Amino acid sequence: MAMVQPRSAPxxxxxxxxxxxxxxxxxxxxxxxxxxxxxxxxxxxxxxxHVNPFxxxxxxxELAGVQATIGRATVYRTLEILAAVxxxxxxxxxxxxxxxxxxxxxxxxxxxxSECGTAVAFTLCPVDQLVSELTRDTDYTIHDHLLEVFGxxxxxxxxxxxx
Length: 163
Fold this sequence. Notes:
- By secondary structure, this protein is α+β, with helices and mostly antiparallel strands.
- The chain has helices spanning 22-31, 38-48, 56-66, 72-84, 128-138, 154-162; strands spanning 15-16, 88-92, 98-102, 109-113, 119-122, 148-151.
- It has one domain (15-162): Winged helix-like DNA-binding domain superfamily/Winged helix DNA-binding domain (Arc Repressor Mutant, subunit A).
- Strand 2 (88-92) and strand 3 form a beta hairpin.
- It is globular, with a radius of gyration of 17 Å.
């Protein structure tokens, strides 16, 4: 089971852990015509315990130990729904594996520690000008983009120098 770290307050105006509560998730689902059924609620509750990116298989394993009636398909369907309504962000970890991160709906990017997986969302979008130029130069209609920045967080840096 993955260790869950406590949520911390943002330290920079464009960097935010984007905390979200169960009632907010339920409200966003309702806005999009979804109900928070008991199985979805169990998945959402498991997701809310994560601060760092997590994989679908981590959730399946966690729920198998607590809610044996929640199957793999329910977990994957719930993740797809939450990503579709922008409560979850799919991101690619440093090792190339997909993971999810919970946050308030809205445009955001992530700074991800390649050692421990801690992720910090940021809302400043350095890609906007590039998107405008690409649209103009290529006649593409660009509808989305992803940006993950990888580095080593201060905690891992300290642990590395202490060894």
